[in-house]
Design goal:
mainly beta; 12 strands; four-stranded antiparallel beta sheet; eight-stranded mixed beta sheet
């Protein structure tokens, strides 16, 4: 996160499918503004509201591989523990660790490959989000 006197930015990864069904990895930046979010607590940085209505957890066993598959729904995944590697069909390979946030939007097309690259379990906090 980058901070200045009145603006911060939060970044996350985005995996999406193009019109030919190929998947890609991108980085998205969300702006925040200093605001009174929980009075009487001191102001803190807040982004605009976005829709979400439920959450779940995904846990992958050591050695787990999710062969080429599209995302089951548009969803944010926050990696809580472990390490995973994601490969998109454009050949990009990226490793994610605890604290990384990913928006999966490749709900159609060829999808991506996910694998648990750690020695232990990998656990995600997952929030399905509607298509804008």
């Amino acid at each position: 996160m980058t901070a200045s006197s009145n603006l911060t930015q939060v970044t996350y990864y985005r995996i999406y499918a193009d019109s030919q069904g190929e998947s890609h990895l991108d980085v998205v930046t969300v702006e925040q503004r200093l605001a009174q979010g929980a009075p009487p607590a001191a102001p803190f940085y807040i982004s605009e509201d976005r829709a979400a209505s439920k959450y779940r957890f995904y846990t992958f066993e050591p050695g787990w591989i999710g062969e080429l598959h599209p995302a089951p729904t548009r969803q944010f995944l926050a990696l809580m523990s472990g390490g995973v590697e994601v490969k998109t069909t454009d050949g990009t390979v990226h490793q994610f660790g605890p604290g990384d946030l990913v928006l999966l939007e490749d709900t159609s097309g060829k999808g991506h490959v996910t694998r648990n690259i750690g020695d232990g379990y990998a656990t995600f906090f997952v929030v399905p989000v509607p298509i804008p």
